[in-house]
Amino acid sequence: MTMTGTTAKPSTKTRTKVRPQTERPRLHKVILVNDDYTPREFVVSVLKAEFRMTEDHAHKVMITAHQRGVCVVAVFTKDVAETKATRATDAGRAKGYPLLFTTEPEE
Ligand code: TYC
User: Fold this and answer.
1) Nearest-CA residue for atom 7 of ligand 1
2) Residue nearest to atom 13 of ligand 1 (CA)
3) Does residue 32 have its Cβ closer than 6 Å to ligand 1?
4) Residue 33: CB within 6 Å of ligand 1?
5) Does residue 60 register a pLDDT over 80?
6) Ligand 1 centre and the CA of 69: distance in Å?
7) DSSP readout, the chain?
8) Range 38-105 has CATH code 3.30.1390.10
9) pLDDT (tens digit, 9 = 90+) per residue, 37-59?
């Protein structure tokens, strides 16, 4: 018996990449940016009000941004991070300060 026509050919079947269905959405960092004009105590008050920080934690975050230029405040889903960054930035603007909070996706 001959075996003509039975040679396997490379599969050309496409397949969507398999991955677990348990992946959570990427989180986004809220970043506090230093400036030369916003009073330290005002930065602390915004961190407490908008990010529900204790005085102690808010002071540490403010000092880190003051010394290093930026500090990660917290991580949230994209929508929440953007909303909080906008509200916190607007709180400074309402007082005439250049206080800035930005967001960026986590790696
Ligand atoms: N650098 C400001 C000052 O000396 C205080 C400050 C800290 C402002 C952190 C912004 O993100 C900031 N008054």
Assistant:
1) 66
2) 39
3) yes
4) yes
5) yes
6) 9
7) ---TT----------PPP--TTPPPPPEEEEEE--SSS-HHHHHHHHHHHH---HHHHHHHHHHHHHHSEEEEEEE-HHHHHHHHHHHHHHHHHTT---EEEEEE--
8) yes
9) 999 999 999 999 999 999 999 99
Name the residue ranges covered by the structural domains of the chain.
Answer: 38-105
- Is the CB of 65 inside a 6 Å radius of any atom of ligand 1? yes
pLDDT in tens, 4-37: 445 555 556 566 677 777 888 899 999 999 999 9
For ligand 1, say whether the CB of 69 is within 6 Å of any of its atoms. no
Percent of the chain with pLDDT over 90: 76
